[in-house]
Amino acid sequence: MNFRDCTCGFSWKSREDFLADPNISIVGYQVNFDHLREGFFLFNHLEEGCFTTMSIHAAEFLDLYSGTIFQDRSTGSFECSGQCLHQSNLAPCPAQCECAYVREVVTLVKNWSKRSAA
User: Where are the domains of the chain?
Assistant: First the structure.
């Protein structure tokens, strides 16, 4: 079973293969404030002739994070910069907020080492 299949027919056997593909780039995060694991990471497949955007549940990547997970959400508070409200804003969040760890995962995914193009 593959980690992901694209509509163009390309497949990735594992999450690591997917993230290391130089033709994959993370372009967004769609938050689900009630259930963070149910949010989506949005990826573009930039293979020539494809250019598909794929959504993958955040839960499939959250095990990459091993730091502190805050218990309370700061959304809408003075501490909150509102980054989660902007799908294309992938910057880390400095708030001590439950959502901050997901944004750390986004940073890990964004900075994943890519293999050389074939």
Answer: 4-110
